[in-house]
Amino acid sequence: MSKSRFDELKAKAATTNLYFLAESLTAETGDLVYSAQLARVLKYRTADGELRLCSRGTDSWTSQHASYIGDASGGWLLRMSSESAEDWIIAVPASKAEVCYALYEWMLNAPQAANPE
Fold it and tell me: In whole angstroms, what separates CA 110 from the centre of its chain?
């Protein structure tokens, strides 16, 4: 869905009723079940954080953005565009433990940084 639309709904979540939030997400995504679950987490979130990953290519750095939001019922991993000309976000249900494990695996399997010595 559109990152800007998601950010708008996230900002309004505290003052919007759950039904309207779920309907708005469904209109954006076309997914009735997961939109309702994501709406509930947006409305009642107890965890919220952002992760910015940078990797070095042959000529330049590239960045990737991810966020995590969660409540008592579960959480969501959000991957979003990092280029200003792009406007997308992908949301996947994931527990905090699953996100931590994925980051752990990524760190274990990341190529070694070049040693300047």
Answer: 21
